[in-house]
Specification:
The structure is a homodimer.
Chain A (H helix, E strand, L loop, with lengths): L10 H16 L4 H8 L3 H13 L3 E4 L2 E4 L2 H12 L1 H17 L2 E8 L2 E8 L14 E3 L4 H9 L2 H11 L12 H14 L2 E4 L6 E9 L5 E10 L5 H24 L2
Antiparallel strand pairs in A: 1-2, 3-4, 3-8, 4-5, 6-7, 7-8
Helix pairs in contact in A: 2-3, 5-9, 6-8
Chain A binds a DNA duplex through helix 1 and helix 3.
GO molecular function (chains A, B): DNA binding; DNA-binding transcription factor activity
Protein name (chains A, B): IclR family transcriptional regulator
InterPro entries (chains A, B): GAF-like_dom_sf, HTH_MetabolicPath_Reg, Tscrpt_reg_IclR_C, Tscrpt_reg_IclR_N, WH-like_DNA-bd_sf, WH_DNA-bd_sf
DNA sequence: TCCAGGAGTTCGACGATGCAGAACGCTTAA
DNA sequence: TTAAGCGTTCTGCATCGTCGAACTCCTGGA
């Protein structure tokens, strides 16, 4: 099963996490569901799930196993471990309030962007449901801003590893185009997303660096093309975001 | 190593999660640190950590391994899976805004209370750092409110499993006292915490149930004894919270 | 410059342990 | 009453996780 992995790894651990991911994907599953889904013997799935439950990583309700809140605990701890994350959260909230659009903060992990905070202007649409979601780094404003802060070697690594898949007809899929785009971002200080990720959506992103110039993450604000145009899109928003990123960097430096 | 666990479980998985928990506890560790911490051979720790990194559950920076954001992803997904959680979050925010005190929503897992949302009135102190934290269910307002909604058998199970450890001199450590306290909560509709968890802190908790009467979680608001007294503590707050819980239950029922 | 110490990595051999499959009991539906 | 489906338990086999040794790389001190 799934033997595309290198040798020399702990196979049992792979099946353990395969099971957890199956539970996430199925939104909870019974023993035999999991077993057939992964091609395991029923007894094996049973043993794994029982162990996961004893370790308190999985809860069982009426025979249906689901991931437990311990993942949330570990996730929150890794998120808040760095004080800078709290500062970034404030800025995300501020941006959402000022622009009344959707704003988010992402960091890079394994060559992809990961949503760390997100907020929206209107209270009603307020949802955190995509926190932790991984997005292709080359097709989002925040992702490109982040890429621009990385070293050339790291950029090459990421492109080699993840490729440049097209998400819409506007996605940049050519490496040299992307590189010159990144050059432009470094000059301007901010990045633009022109429906490269989703048709009908534009966005502006700004990188955020630590005091010593090492990359930290990126802020972005996104909205519909009919609102994101003209002076707002070309001047007001970029200036607001550059200012916000600058404040954030100063806050980080002196905290 | 650590052989107090039952036979018939997947031992390798236990060491895998032991390693993850060690990384959480140490806030990142090197291979040999983890190995000596858990009494493993260096090569074993190496193999596990390499596997965890390949599975993208752990990131490595300059030889130091840390839990990755995938835990956050799984945690957020389990939290937001149930739509009711979003509704609960709104109420936590509302309570924090109205009372200008700390408010939280907890659910029960493995016989303990788990913070699912938390908010505080003043923006400055706004921190989510304790999300996911597990608390003794008998020594908190929300915990007792939650306990009061459970079946007698489940209550017995929890007490047998977790015991009633004293956290302060006011903690209820006697089972029959706790049971009559729960009876009172069922009558009144809300619970009170009189410095049972932390000296100097009082709190009020209300249970939240699904439309069919099954337990969902509990809301609570906590504050310092010098503010939590008199009419506020005896009337205003309880009424506010009972109303809020009632609204929440209605929202849940018709969503 | 050389050596010593510590860290990460690789390798091989042993035996613990994870795995599949069968068998059993329970519940549900026909 | 029976059959199907599910969870649970057990047992034997061979896989695979474990340890320890050996090697390299890096760093700091003499």
């Amino acid at each position: 099963m799934a033997s595309e992995h290198e040798r020399g790894r702990v196979k049992t651990m792979e099946t353990a996490f395969d099971i957890i991911e199956t539970l996430v994907a199925l939104d909870g599953g019974r023993i035999s569901e999991v077993a057939s889904e992964l091609g395991l013997a029923k007894s094996t799935a049973h043993r794994h799930l029982t162990t996961l439950e004893e370790l308190e990583y999985v809860v069982v309700d009426d025979g249906v196993y689901r991931p437990g809140l311990r993942f949330l605990q570990i996730g929150e701890q890794t998120r808040t471990r760095q004080e800078a994350y709290e500062l970034a959260k404030e800025k995300v909230t501020d941006l959402a309030a000022e622009t009344e659009e959707r704003s988010q903060f992402i960091v890079e992990e394994y060559g992809r962007g990961v949503y760390v905070f997100r907020d929206t202007g209107q209270r009603a649409v307020h949802t955190d449901s995509e926190i932790g979601k991984r997005i292709p780094i080359h097709a989002t404003a925040a992702g490109k801003a982040l890429l621009a802060t990385l070293s050339d070697e790291r950029i090459t690594e990421i492109i080699d590893h993840r490729g440049l898949p097209a998400l819409t007809e506007h996605t940049i899929t050519d490496e040299s185009t992307l590189r010159s785009e990144l050059e432009g971002i470094r000059d301007r200080g901010y990045s633009i997303n022109q429906q490269e990720n989703t048709i009908g959506l534009r966005a502006i992103g700004v990188p955020v660096e630590h005091g010593d110039g090492t990359p930290f993450g990126a802020l972005s604000v996104s909205g519909p093309t009919h609102r994101f145009q003209g002076t707002l899109f070309e001047e007001t928003l970029p200036n607001l975001m550059l200012g916000t990123a600058n404040e954030l960097e100063l806050n980080i430096q002196y905290s």
